[in-house]
Amino acid sequence: MCCSQAFTLLTFLLVFHLHTIQCVSRIKFTNLQCVALDKPFADFAYCKLKALARDKVALSLRVKLFQVPVNNVSLNVESFKKYNGYRPYLVNVTTNFCDFLRHKKRLAFLDIIFQFLEKYSNINHTCPFDHDIIVDKLILMPKYFSMLPVPAGEYRLRIVVGAYNDWKAVVNIFVQIWE
């Protein structure tokens, strides 16, 4: 098979795959788990979901920082899709969060998540962080995911946060998507 035939086949498969994935029409949080790994450094004041309607759930959390200012933050974001248990799906990114805040376009997936997260949180500035981290009444909307090819199903987003080269907290966010 020559290069042009391989390219044509690859293009066809990609277009076919993208056409089989339908647009997200409904999405909601189903569960939330927050674990502080270093309680003398930081702890969760609250970590909760509140049902507002049948398919509308708000996420709220507050992390109390005990050793401020924090100017070295690491972040690992991994997505999972449920198939007989949660299996890795599409994304596993580890980055220096302070650098990411200065250059958001370098990591497109995180930038998409951060675009709607910053509207509901106080994480809308670069390092250092010298205050509690708050996410208040974050509600997922299908329009937030128009840039991502995400099929219907159940997902888990695991966010591991570290500071000074030591993991400090894990947040597992469970989401359901359907057409």
Description of the molecule:
- By secondary structure, the chain is of the alpha+beta class.
- The protein has a single domain (24-178), classed as Ganglioside GM2 activator (Ganglioside M2 Activator Protein, Chain: A), CATH 2.70.220.10.
- Helices cover 19% and strands 47% of the residues.
- The protein has three helices and eight strands.
- The chain has helices spanning 3-20, 97-102, 108-117, and strands spanning 26-36, 42-53, 56-65, 73-82, 86-96, 133-139, 153-163, 166-178.
- The strands form two sheets. It has a five-stranded antiparallel β-sheet. Strands 2-3-6 form a three-stranded antiparallel β-sheet, with no helix packed on it.
- The longest helix has 18 residues, at 3-20.
- It is globular.
- Mean pLDDT is 83; it is low at 3-22.
Brief overview, please?
Residues 1-23 form the signal peptide. The chain has 179 residues and is α+β, with helices and mostly antiparallel strands. The protein is 19% helix and 47% strand.
Radius of gyration: 18 Å
Report the CATH architecture. Answer: Distorted Sandwich
Uncertain runs with pLDDT below 50, 5 residues or more? 3-22
Number of strands: 8
Helix content class: 10-25%
Given the structure, what is the number of helices? Answer: 3
The CATH superfamily name is Ganglioside GM2 activator
Number of domains: 1
Residue share in β-strands: over 45%
Order of helices and strands: HEEEEEHHEEE
CATH topology tier name:
Ganglioside M2 Activator Protein, Chain: A
Signal peptide: 1-23
Protein name: (Mediterranean fruit fly) hypothetical protein
Organism: Ceratitis capitata
Keywords: Signal
